[in-house]
Amino acid sequence: MISTRRIVQLVFMWFCTLNGVTTFYFSSGRLRWSRFLVCYRIVHNIVVIILTIKFLMDFWHFKASSFDESPLVRLAAITYFGLVFLSLISCMGCAYRRQDRISNMIKKLLELEAISKHWGYRESKAQKRFLNMLMLTVTLLLIIRLSIHVALNVNRFMRGSHNPCNCFLSECMIFATNSLAFGLMLEICRNWWRLQSALETLILDANPFPHMMQRLRKLQAMFQSLIDMTDEVCFVFRYVLLCYLLRNVWSGIRVGYMMVRVCLGHSAIEAELEYLQMVFVTCIQPLLFSLMMNSLTHTTDSLLETTKEVIRGLYSRDEQQQRCMEWFTLQLAEQHTYVHIFGAYRMNRSLVFDGCSVILLHVIYMVQCEYSSMF
Questions:
Q1: Helix, strand or coil for residue 27?
Q2: Which of 8, 21, 204, 286 has the highest local Cβ count within 10 Å?
């Protein structure tokens, strides 16, 4: 019987396919390429670009008076429009140029999972609970995202008024690409912990079995494969992750600024429910998703260091095995599993502090500019 985790994975895979990010599907447990999905992706991307441009032009037309009242609101809107276009272009570029690499990573992860199941190795209950919690939370964020857009569109037709939050397709495509990178990193962590469990079991096994050294060497090769795959994820999604980081900073600035205006300000703009709805839709979900992404990237960051500590604590009576583990330790010495953006930004909890500092400084600057313009 198919597991709940596999069902969620299939749902997210089809969500990515439906949003023009991937061009393959699962059939009989195998990943298959589809020419129809390639054509669908081209048509979908063209439609998304056209509808996004229409949305931006309509929003600019209907909210022109608000922009005249506040230059900061105009600046925030221009920044949002630019980030949406950059994010869409990065998602489409990743989908067009890196499709083969994405499918190869998924196939490799499926192969590693099959080997782990065949050998009977599993991650611990705490690790499994952590990964399932992340997967469930991202699923809930997707449901919330879809529900918000449905509710806003229902409200639009019920009231018969223009709704500036009609950015459904572009936001879904961006979320699908980010979720694909998230899912790949999550499965890397799952497979890594299974291999680490297998490594501990082999070394501490008091009853050696035939071909143990061959399995130990194969485990080491699989570890190296996951290390290379982590770097591959960073390379394939480097522009996507860069736009993701920029949108998080912008969302934090926008939410912080709007909170100050709502709590302390008395401008007529706060009375516009439609504008507040757009801020909520475009900012809250990326910030919530960033919490899940940061937890996962921090975990990925620590994978290799944790394994090194485990290896240091293991001792085998077999001299050949011990020598093999020493060579493996040397092999891991100069490598890493952290997620980075162009090698400049390392995505872990320390980056959260840097991002919050930037957000706070910009919110203070925007509030000062707003008050200066009043005198």
A1: strand
A2: 21
- For residue 345, what are the β-bridge partners? 341
Beta-bridge partners for 30: 27
Contacts of 334 (CB under 8 A, 6+ apart): none
**pTM for this predicted structure:** 0.85
- Please write the tens of the pLDDT for every residue from 128-159: 888 888 888 888 888 877 777 777 667 666 76
**Token pair for 246:** 């920029």
Using CB atoms within 10 Å of the CB of residue 29, give its burial: 0 to 12 exposed, 13 to 18 middle, 19+ buried.
Answer: exposed
* Residue 305 near residue 338 (C-beta atoms within 8 A): no
What is the rounded CA–CA span in Å between residue 60 and residue 132? 41
pLDDT at residue number 270: 46
Instruction: Give the amino acid at 159.
Output: R
Q: In this structure, what DSSP letter does residue 280 have?
A: I
Which residues pair with residue 33 across a beta bridge?
A: 24
* 196 CB burial (10 A radius; 0-12, 13-18, 19+): buried
Cα 153 from Cα 170, distance rounded (Å): 15
| Residue 165: CB atoms within 10 Å | 23
Q: Report how far residue 8's alpha carbon sits from residue 207's, in angstroms, rounded to the nearest whole number.
A: 39
CA atoms within 13 A on the CB side of 28: 1
Would the pLDDT of 187 be above 80?
Answer: yes
